[in-house]
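Researcher: Here's the sequence for the chain we discussed earlier.
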Amino acid sequence: MALAGRQSSAGRDTQSTRIPRRTAGLDFTLHVRRLCEDMIARVERLAHIDMSRVAVGFSQTRKTTGHGMYASLTPMRFAGGQTHTVRRGRRWGVQRLHDATGREMLYIVNFYLPRFLNLEFREKLTTVVHELWHVGPKFDGDVRRFAGRCFAHGSSQKRYDATVDVLVDRWLAAGPPDALYTFLRGGFRDLIARHGRVYGRKVPAPKLIAVR
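Model: Thanks. This is the structure I predict for it:
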């Protein structure tokens, strides 16, 4: 189930995919990772997240329009952290994802560029926290689940967004260094003008795999 930037999809194993490496302009995914790590360190309600097991990637949008997804969270486990699920009598898992050290990832956070970078500064921060807040409190590869059919955001999207706003305010009030989020000021073209190019890691989307 990938939970998208104000939205959601899912995915486990037999096959394994490794996150590719890259190098040199502005490393967008590295900067976002550092931002997330700082948010987790300063905001108690995000402290359950271990970024060493969260893959951070970006996807290039075909259109520069501001409409559409800005970011998404893909859990690598099913409800309750289960590695398999049964659908229509068949057992399914999610293709596994590992980093360069062989550590298995439990979540993928993906950002859609340049659309995400063309948001207002505050909206960029709330989008990042929005995705982090989707991470299940047990950090077991499943998402945070609310009661009812709309388990991803609960019965009220406004309430979910209000919680995200509070978490952003707490992080800013904790006094994070400006250098952490300077890259979020200005739009995509500003970064290109300043750094020459914007690059980062592209994380392959996991596939559902039939398990015998």
